[in-house]
Fold this sequence. Notes:
The chain is mostly helical.
Amino acid sequence: xxxxxxxxxxxxxxxxxxxxxxxxxxxxxxxxxxxxxxxxxxxxxxxxxxxxxxxxxxxxxxxxxxxxxxxxxxxxxxxxxxxxxxxxxxxxxxxxxxxxxx
Length: 102
């Protein structure tokens, strides 16, 4: 006996990789509506949480600016419209990046 030896590779121990399901498409309509309901939510739905949080913070900052300066109405409206448009376009980009035509 020559001492301990590592076990020999046995093909029975190797299993096939499980089938990976393709990603499900994200709805551009849902991204648009989420962007209308809550600024930034459409971007978060499209897996772009960084931009979604930025739009949400901009919108939240604009609320007190309405009372103080009145300019908050303009910045809030811009954030709200940009959120809806970006929710739609970023969802399309996510679908295109994953090989889904939408």
